[in-house]
Predict the structure of ABC transporter ATP-binding protein.
Amino acid sequence: MAAPEPPGTDSASAAASERRPSVIVSGVDVTYRVQGAKKAVASVEEDDESLFRGLFRRGRDLATMQTVEAVKDVSFVAYHGESIGIIGRNGSGKSTLLRAIAGLIPPTKGQIWISGEPSLLGVNAVLMSKLTGERNIYVGGQALGLSRAQVRARFEDIVEFSGIGEAVHRPMQTYSSGQAARLRFAISTAAAPDILMIDEALATGDADFKERSAARVAEIREQASTVFLVSHSNATVRDLCNRALWMEKGVLLADGPAEEVVAAYEATLPKKKPPAKPKTPPSAPSPTIPPAPKDA
Ligand SMILES: Nc1ncnc2c1ncn2[C@@H]1O[C@H](COP(=O)(O)OP(=O)(O)OP(=O)(O)O)[C@@H](O)[C@H]1O
């Protein structure tokens, strides 16, 4: 009798054995420590008293350390060839999780193993706003492991893909957020990275750019890389991802097929009100209907 297939696999067990992990996140916490303000006082008397105490302490104790638990006990395994959307409300820990996977923030607890080089690290860490787009293409391309000659060979493609045209000769600080995001995306994907991480970059492009970037993400997936995409656009996650992670207050609430997880997330969002009908201005003349022509 054939052994039962493990749950969560596509069909045959042969396919399951081909799944190679690219990222393993195990029990990860990320806690920020921030200097917070003193607590608000309850009454005028207390206020005077605390002011008096504060003067004698020379303000030393007025600032308190606060902690923000941005990611709490998150675990999952990502595989080569997957495109994983990270969804959730503002402040739910999506970008922090991505930055931790990219190695930009150390986890406070738990461990992250990565097979390969994540590209968010390579490009975003090195691009410099004072340098022109052209210089940044070289700096970013080399940070991804390309030689100068390889960057030169791909230069035109990168500029064309980003659609920034002549702006490539201007400093990046003069770019619109959309232009900068498109150039970052074009550089990040110039060398098929082992792990591509996209944080909202696609949200800023126009329809044409979105279509082209979707095609490029698909190409990268085909080369057995892993793509992570943080997005507030549920449509983008549905289009580009086969799997989704739903973060809520730092906790991984759901992990599964993108369509199912996005649908479950959407069900918790407030329903959008239909747009209000425009009011007819009181002075506007009422439409007149011409009399129907009489038959000749
Ligand atoms: N550098 C930081 N220092 C302190 N707290 C931070 C820092 N960065 C993020 N946080 C806090 O950590 C929590 C998670 O933030 P994060 O940016 O990861 O959420 P997000 O889901 O990506 O949000 P958004 O959708 O708004 O971009 C929030 O409470 C945020 O205020």
